[in-house]
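Researcher: I'm preparing a figure for a lab meeting and need a structural model of a single chain. I don't have an experimental structure, so a prediction will have to do for now. The sequence is pasted below. Please return the structure as tokens so I can convert it later.
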Amino acid sequence: MTMNLRPALLVMLAIWSGPDGSTLLHGQESKLVHETHVPVGGAELYARDVGKGPAIIILHGGPDFDQSYMLPEMDRLADAYHLIYYDQRGRGKSADHVQPEDVTLASDIADMEKVRQYFHLDSVTLLGHSWGTVLALEYALKYPERVSHLILMNPGPASREDYVQLRKEWLEKRAELVAQKKAIAETAAYKDGDPEAVTAYYRIHFKAALARQEDYEKLIARMHASFKKEGVLKARAVEDRLMQDAWANQNFDLLPQIKSLKVPTLVLSGDHEFIPASSAEHIAQAIPKARLTILEGCGHFTFMECPVPVHQEIDPLFAGRTHLHGSNEWRVN
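Model: Understood. Here is the structure written out token by token.
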């Protein structure tokens, strides 16, 4: 079967070169897009930044993806914030000279610190999506004085127990999809990193993750365009390594620790989320200054599905307002 998948370039904003070699978002000449590489030991992290204002380091999900699936929708925030994206080590454009076995949760946190230093930031907001929320929480626990705000978007489980609940819910509610994924994962093409087979796998995986068909097709097309055999295999090996440090680790549990975090935190999810609602709820309940917001008509990719409400929920964090724990109210500081 041939899939009708358009290249990601057709669903991304057109760009053109600026006078300094940077790029400009189409129709938004004031938003220069800069690309650079951040040295991290024997490797380099591909980074992309755009916009002016409070700095936000954006942490993509996966762990086997890169930042490309977030664009162009996440760039809407560049009208008010300085957005700093980077492909995590071993993934996307940060894969050169990286051995998967050298990537750990600790090395990913150390890389985040290198990114902060590279951009000369005293403190920073972290925006994590899905797996990226685990990285955001781990970094905030290690460097609490360097984090001003947390935005945890469609958070992945923050404990082994919540991860087990996720798997249980999938088996109970989506047994047919699980069987279809397993069948594809056992094919030689998938094991060999064939982009078509990998796309077919994620087409099933994300079938229940978005509220609208057009957003689902957009996501799959974007991912298909990013899949290259060598990159898929390396990112998959990195993911396997990181799983051992996090969700596959019987002792993984950030919930007791994040009770110590003092930063204003926004936890964003959707009413069509395919991760159990309890994962986001447990995080929001644990962090003293956290606010949980469930957006209507959104699934696991709220930045794509509901970009305007997402922006409206983020802005109060930077307006000197703190959430009153246990309520839906904000206090002006």
